[in-house]
Predict the 3D structure of the following.
Amino acid sequence: DAKTTQPNSMESNEEEPVHLPCNHSTISGTDYIHWYRQLPSQGPEYVIHGLTSNVNNRMASLAIAEDRKSSTLILHRATLRDAAVYYCILRDVTGAQKLVFGQGTRLTINP
Amino acid sequence: EADIYQTPRYLVIGTGKKITLECSQTMGHDKMYWYQQDPGMELHLIHYSYGVNSTEKGDLSSESTVSRIRTEHFPLTLESARPSHTSQYLCASSEFGGGYNEQFFGPGTRLTVL
């Protein structure tokens, strides 16, 4: 499974944008880039995914580098409820299409 | 809103007991997964299923077993619980298809074996 590298932790202030980076230099052409987050004492929840183009949804935006070797999850206006561990995951289109979780980035939001 | 349920949410049990962790989803998803997560650590896939009568072992070896007799139900069983089985167990499901499908997670079962 292709691996991703994320900072262990990040901190931001409420109502400010947050940019969470992810490196995935060994990504293959068929890997989708997925982001999940896990709030305290809960199961992970889907945030966003993309293949090549930048993506927006109601939760966040995903900016994907042209060579696809890195991506950035953007929370446009962080709230206290966005404090969570954010996982960047490469998911292949074949087989089990399983999610391989790394350590993720623990995001702290200051009031 | 994800419709995937796990029971019990919390379970404290003695060594040697047989336990079954329940997972059900009402979304008609073919694929279901079990992950194990120790406190503060990453999730590891321990079992998955492509559909009825399909079960596969995941990346992390586990003494647990699973069954998939009905699409909506994917229970996990430990024949003889041990303290080393203490962990959080998370169930997930997704539609059958490409790598773009999201996985929906249940709230988890936190298991403590004394």
